[in-house]
Amino acid sequence: MNPKRFRRNWLSAGVGVIAIAAAAVVGSASFSSSASAEEMMVERAKILKDIGVYGLFTTFKVRPSYYMLDAAERAMAADEVDALVMAHKDKVLVDAYLTRGFESESDFMLRLNAYEPLNSQAFLTEFAATRLGRNSDVTFSVFGVTKPLNHTTKEKSPDLLKALQETAYSAPDPKYAFMIPIAKDAEWWNMSEADKLKRMEEHTLPTLPFLVNVKRKLYHSTGIDDTDFITYFETADLVAFNDLNIALFSVPEMLNNTRYGRPTVMGAIMSVKDVVMALSK
């Protein structure tokens, strides 16, 4: 990773596998072509299943200057950011994660999902003007888009697709989230579709036992950011997540990765307001 990405000006951030096949949300649907991205209203359950949704992950480090503000002003920061989220709720879905204590390079992460990337940019531009935003630096940012399944489709791999659809998350509500960028080598991109399918089937089968306690989502980034995929996970069982990764590292497809993580970002799943309150004590 170019170290300049970790030092770039914060406002620039606005513009910027579990298995790659399994990581895409099963049953995703595209939004209606009759409605433009600008017109689409954000509904949480729908946007997290749709394809053609742009995801922007940004991590921040709070500056010491934030803690030079008096306690009363810091206490106002949570309401200020919460009001901003509400003002943009029809255009951008904002999720927040407390990374302080889990990460050395960041204190919190925001995940923005939107049908139009300019809406995410507008949110981050306004966030930069808040008390917390003025006193935070971006340490990492990555951008991608949700797409249909490429390999484990009904036509190419019906049995595996059926197994994926029938293996639903059934564990307690997730407490932790992970964001892991992945890049593939030239050999992968030049494989035949048949060879890719074989690799993905080898990749996906060992992960099936873990889908009951690990949620997953995939964003595609080739050409629109400096990685190929963004894998996003949620879980309440860190041992299961560790075992899942061991299973993934044991399949041939992993040999085609030139990047897995760097960074791997772990955060506690919290509301935006609760994250700001935790950082404002």
How would you characterize the overall build of this protein?
There is one protein chain. By secondary structure, the chain is an alpha+beta fold. It folds into 2 domains: 3-146 and 269-279, Apc35880, domain 1 (Alpha-Beta Plaits, 2-Layer Sandwich), CATH 3.30.70.1030; 158-266, 2-Layer Sandwich (Alpha-Beta Plaits), CATH 3.30.70. The protein contains 10 helices and 11 strands. It has helices at residues 20-23, 44-47, 71-87, 117-127, 131-134, 158-166, 186-189, 193-204, 238-249, 272-279, and strands spanning 29-30, 50-51, 54-62, 93-98, 108-114, 136-145, 176-184, 214-220, 229-235, 257-260, 265-270. The strands form 2 sheets. Strands 3, 4, 5, 6, 7, 8, 9, 10 and 11 form a 9-stranded antiparallel β-sheet that branches. Strands 1-2 form a two-stranded parallel sheet. Mean pLDDT is 88; it is low at 1-28.
Provide the descriptors you would attach to this structure in a database record.
281 residues, alpha+beta, Alpha-Beta Plaits, 2 domains, nine-stranded antiparallel sheet, two-stranded parallel ribbon
Q: Beta-strand percentage?
A: 15-25%
CATH superfamily heading of the largest domain: Apc35880, domain 1
Instruction: Count helical runs.
Output: 10
Q: Uncertain regions: pLDDT < 50 for 5+ in a row? A: 1-28
The gist of it:
This protein has 281 residues and is α+β, with helices and mostly antiparallel strands. 30% of the residues lie in helices and 25% in strands.
